[in-house]
Amino acid sequence: MTRYAVFGQPISHSLSPRIHAAFAAQLGIDLDYRAIEAGRGAFASALAAFARDGGRGANVTLPLKQDASALCSELSDRARRCGSVNTLARAGDEWHGDSTDGIGLLRDLARHGIETRGVRVLLLGAGGAARAAAFALADAGARELVVMNRTATRAQALAVALGTPARTCDRDALQREPTFDIVVNATSAGHAGDVFAWPLAAEATPTACYDLSYGGAARAFLAAARAAGARVALDGLGMLVEQAAESFALWHGCAPDTTPVHALLRAEA
Ligand code: NAP
User: Fold this and answer.
1) For residue 74, what is the DSSP state?
2) Of 100, 142, 216, 267, which has the fewest Cβ atoms less than 10 A away?
């Protein structure tokens, strides 16, 4: 039985073991995928021990995505560009790093019929997930990406890395922005239970709003989006399944059918 794992802290809440077990059952693959608790100080040694025990692949989540990138001998283009790694694959004695978050978001948007080509996007946040989302949306043909972040310098750095069609905006200036097609919340503010202040003018109703987080952490943003009149308001559970499917395909060379796994998680949410 081959070994896989997700590393992070906290990690006991992770749905990844369930998702990968469901994919493996569907495709008749025998694997052991478990959650391993490791903070930043313990991650390198925990990953080395996992490799010694036969670990073939790993996902990494908060707060390890940047540390993971430093432990890889090779990075995919998309991981290098967004500066974060969520998927590690063992190649001989080395780890190869990839980032499947961006493609996970695009696939979930597509599943819901949300167009990304030619659209105006407001991106809230400039951390690892925001960067993955931003590059994926730019590659998918978004016409304009406006980045707003609590720490303005990080938003500026992301806009510069993206080049055109990206720029930054502060909260006051957002009030004067015309309507966005999609608003993506890639902040982790919901995890801290912070009050979410809707940033757009009352008449600037976006078509679709997407929060990368899910469960209670997405509640405030989605409620604000619906109150603002957004036609579609989605949480990141679908992205979680889709980014996992991309990791699974990288490791096993075959893509699972995500539809029954979306249904399974929604039924339990
Ligand atoms: P990260 O690198 O730590 O970035 C966090 C971002 O949130 C930063 O832009 C930070 O702003 C902002 N932020 C944090 N607290 C805030 C607050 N109280 N008010 C306003 N902004 C705040 O985290 P990440 O890896 O990008 O993850 C971001 C979110 O995406 C998390 O909720 C995570 O669970 C979710 N996610 C979901 C998936 C999925 O598959 N669905 C995948 C990846 C991530 P500063 O720069 O000012 O600190």
Assistant:
1) E
2) 267
